[in-house]
Amino acid sequence: MRTLSTTPKKDGFRMPGEFEEHDGCFMIWPERPDNWRLGAKPAQKTFAKVAKAISEFENMTVLASPEQYSNARNMLDSDIRVVEMVNNDSWVRDCGPTFVTDGEVVRGVDWEFNAWGGLVDGLYFPWDKDDQIAEKVCELERKDRYRTNGFVLEGGSIHVDGEGTCIVTAECLLSQGRNPELSKLSIEGNLKEYLNLEKVIWIDNGIYNDETNGHVDNICCFVKPGEVLLAWTDDKDDPQYEISKSAYDILTNSVDAKGRKLKVHKMYTPSPILITKEESDGVDAVDGTLPREEGDRLAASYVNFYIANGGIVFPMFNDPNDEKARKLLEELFEGRKVVGIYAREILLGGGNIHCITQQLPKARK
Ligand code: KQY
Question: From the CB of 123, is ligand 1 less than 6 Å away?
Fold first, then answer.
């Protein structure tokens, strides 16, 4: 594996849309008891269901720590590849490589990772093992990599259409814990260089109370070039309403890199989901890790589904809007099989289906 000193834009590589064809998908096995309740046992069952669902459509690789390798191997079907890799937690979208391609070859972008805000408002300490995941995955896949030393970013904070447009939130990319010394213009410049973009659309905020400082992948995503899905509520008393309304206004007044006006589909969120006492009691409290308190509102949304080659894997919460979300996905992704997984256990760890998965695009060579 070579570490390249150029940029994807200079080399003619771009980040493809998630709806383009994949070679496979990665996940990291959860285990840390200060984030996942009951020693991560319930989360492991949910991760295993997500891995199985995606493996029906494309190759699945699960990275597991040496301590968890045997357990992961036992809990996962035999067609899922399990590879030992030390880690700090299980968010491969954020610490894994963002893959780019020139249509023939795939390379990885290895963003600097600091656990969503480093010592300012990061979610755990240390994060050194997670910061090496992208490099190790590139090594495993024999992909050359670009490393952005001094520029912090997570894969969940960007969503691209594969044709030169990216959507981000200002809440996240301008947060004090990531790149406080960089202006909005320089941040946008870095995105354009490393993802090969012409246009960055900035919405203000992510989902209410999202501990990642509002990752875009939980509130808004591309269905295809020119069309986006936006998490929505009609309840004006819910703080989510103003957030979604502001994003709607920005998106419907934006054109993409090709000059198209965006079509925005509203995807209703589930009713607010709060942590129960039993759930909170199951998490080990550790200094330096975000506590999980009874009554805290979780950042629940359906927008963070995974787009696989022939399918969609989306989260369900035992909410009447689960079926609305399924119907909308079936309409928008005609020809793909839509599979729902109860995802409360992932939400309790602060995440969603999109941020526990990372796709490897198809390479011709
Ligand atoms: O991208 C994400 N949503 C990851 C959340 C990390 C939570 C760590 N406790």
Answer: yes
**Rounded mean pLDDT, 4-10:** 97
Residue 346 and residue 353: Cα distance in Å, rounded? 7
Q: Taking residues 119-132, what's their average pLDDT?
A: 97
Tell me, using a 6 A CB cutoff, whether residue 22 lines ligand 1.
Answer: no
Mean pLDDT, residues 30-44 taken together: 97
- The burial class, CB within 10 Å (0-12 / 13-18 / 19+), for 87 is buried
Q: Is the CB of 96 under 6 A from ligand 1?
A: no
Are the CB atoms for 228 and 221 separated by under 8 Å?
yes
Q: Which two tokens stand for residue 148?
A: 């952005």
Residue 219 has pLDDT above 70, yes or no: yes
Average pLDDT, the chain: 97
Burial class (CB in 10 A: 0-12, 13-18, 19+), 181: exposed
Which residue ranges make up each domain of the chain?
Answer: 3-361
DSSP single-letter state for residue 350: T
Q: If you take atom 2 of ligand 1, which residue's CA is the nearest one?
A: 351
The predicted structure's pLDDT at residue 243: 98
Q: What is the pLDDT of residue 365?
A: 65
User: What's the residue count for the chain?
Assistant: 365
Alpha helices in the chain (DSSP H): 8-11, 41-55, 69-75, 92-95, 118-121, 128-131, 133-141, 170-173, 184-195, 239-252, 277-281, 321-332, 344-348
Decide if domain 3-361 falls under CATH 3.75.10.10.
Answer: yes
238, 196 Cβ separation under 8 angstroms: no
Contact 219, 231 (CB under 8 A): yes
The predicted-structure confidence for 327-341, as pLDDT tens digits, reads as follows 999 999 999 999 999
